[in-house]
Amino acid sequence: MQPYATTDGRFDLVKLRRVVEGTLPHAELSREEKVYVARHFGGSARGVGRVLGVTEKTVTRWRENGDGVPEQGGDDA
């Protein structure tokens, strides 16, 4: 990713940052975008889960599944 880039592949980093900052509701994000935020934005699993509307366990699972493919099932929003 380039410094000051507004996208990373198909992800709109400005949109994702707005969700993390609380100026855009997590309902605006797709599941893939939520996984991206969980993996690439800092913060505790509990805090990130609260922002994304998922559990701490889900964030931890997404972070540990580093193969780039989101897992299916569970409480993943």
Structure explained in plain terms:
There is one protein chain. The chain has 77 residues and is mainly alpha-helical. It has one domain (7-64). It has four helices and two strands. It has a two-stranded antiparallel ribbon with strand order 1-2. Helix 3 (45-52) packs across helix 4 (56-64). The chain is globular and about 30 Å long.
**Order of helical and strand elements:** EEHHHH
Sheet with most strands: strand arrangement: 1-2
What would the principal axes of the Cα set say about the shape?
A: globular
Q: Please estimate the helix content.
A: 40-55%
The largest sheet, given as strand count, sense and whether it forms a barrel, is: 2 strands, antiparallel
| Tally of individual helices | 4
Tally of strands: 2
Distance between the termini: 26 Å
Task: Estimate the mean pLDDT confidence.
Answer: 87
Q: Return residue spans where pLDDT drops below 50 for at least 5 consecutive residues.
A: none
Number of domains: 1
Secondary-structure-derived class: mainly alpha
Strand content: 5-15%
Radius of gyration: 12 Å
